[in-house]
Every structure is written in structure tokens, then in C-alpha cells.
Design a protein that fits this description.
Length: 101
């Protein structure tokens, strides 16, 4: 599988890092659905890059620990997280599909 171009990969990693910094306290802000969505989006990107064979380039960016979130997923903010995760994953995978080989 061809790798993503370095410039694109760097942009994706910068976005993941920025979103994770901005959402660092998301567990303490259950009512802030946008924060949870953004955190989920970043997590979806990490998961998608792993599925696309980019694990080495993702480095130490691990997916969120779902054990910490399990009791939150039925709540509106948990649903926002899952939606963000799905969109982040899908859009990241679409970038791979749009690369010319």
C-alpha cells in the first residue's frame, strides 16, 4: 500500500495533535458536545491511519482508551464523540483514496 505524501501526513498529524491539545480535558466537560466531537474526530483519524498502514508514522499517538468512555457513549456527548470518530475516520480514509498512485 503506498504511503501518504509527507506533506499530507504532516498536516494530518498536526491536526490530530492540535485537536488533542484542545480537548485534553474532555472527560471533565461532559456537556460540551463540540469538545467531545473534536476528540472523537482526532481518535477516528488515528484509527484510520492505523488501518491504512501508517502506524509507524503515527508514532506514539494511541487511540483513546475506550474503557474510560464506555459509560459515556449513551449520553449526548458520547454520541457526539462517536459521530466525530466516524467522520474523522471516513474523511481520513477518503484522503487516501484521493491520492494518485
Amino acid at each position: 500500500m503506498p504511503e501518504l505524501p509527507d506533506e499530507l501526513m504532516n498536516q494530518l498529524l498536526e491536526l490530530i495533535d492540535r485537536l488533542r491539545v484542545e480537548t485534553a480535558g474532555y472527560l471533565d466537560e461532559p456537556g460540551d458536545q463540540q469538545t467531545w466531537y473534536n476528540r472523537g474526530y482526532a481518535n477516528g483519524m488515528v484509527l484510520a491511519l492505523g488501518r491504512l498502514g501508517q502506524t509507524e508514522r503515527v508514532g506514539r499517538r494511541e487511540p483513546d482508551n475506550m474503557d474510560k468512555l464506555s459509560g459515556q457513549m449513551a449520553m449526548p456527548w458520547g454520541k457526539a464523540y462517536r459521530h466525530g470518530e466516524a467522520v474523522g475516520s471516513r474523511e481520513t480514509e477518503q484522503l487516501k483514496g484521493n491520492q494518485s498512485t
